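*** C-alpha cells ***
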Amino acid sequence: MAQSHKPDRRPTDRRLAPSRRRVTTVYPPTLVVVLKPDHVRDVDLFVRRYDARAFGPHLFWRGDIPETDLQGIEPGSELPGGLVTPYDGRGRNETPLWLPEQRALVFADALTAPAGELRVSSTPWHEERALPALRALLELPFEQVIVSHGEPVHDRAAYERALLLPPWSG
C-alpha cells in the first residue's frame, strides 16, 4: 500500500544569526526555479520533497527533461514572493533571478567564479549585448551575487569588477 506524501512545512532549522544575535527560523522552500535548461538535475526531487511549485525555461535538452511540469519563465517574468527574472543579454535560454527581499542576484552560467574571482562568461556578443544588459542590472539595489560555478557568493563590488574584466572563456 502506497502512502501519500505530505510535505513537511515545519521549520527545517533554527540558527543564531551572528549579526543580530537572535534566533532565525529557516522554512522549507515553496518554489523551485531552474534558470537554465541544463540545470534541471534535482528539480524533481525538490518538488516532490517539499511539494514546491516549479518554474523554469520553456525548452530543455533531449534526454535531460524533468518529469515535473515547470511553469515557463523568461526575462521579465514575475514569480511568487516578488522574485523577478531580468534580462542578461546572453541569449542562452537562461535568465538570472532577482530576489528583492534578500537583495541578491542569482546566475546560472552568465557569471562564474573560477579560482574565486567573479567573471562574466564569454559570448560572441559580449560587448554588444551581454555587458550593456549586465550593467543595467546595477540599477537594482542588490548586495549579493550568487553563482552556480566556483565560489558561490560575492558582493556588489565583485560584480562591478567583473564587468570590467575580460570575459571568462574557460
Residues 18-162 form a domain with the Metallo-beta-lactamase; Chain A fold (CATH 3.60.15.10). The CA atoms of residues 82 and 100 lie 7 Å apart.
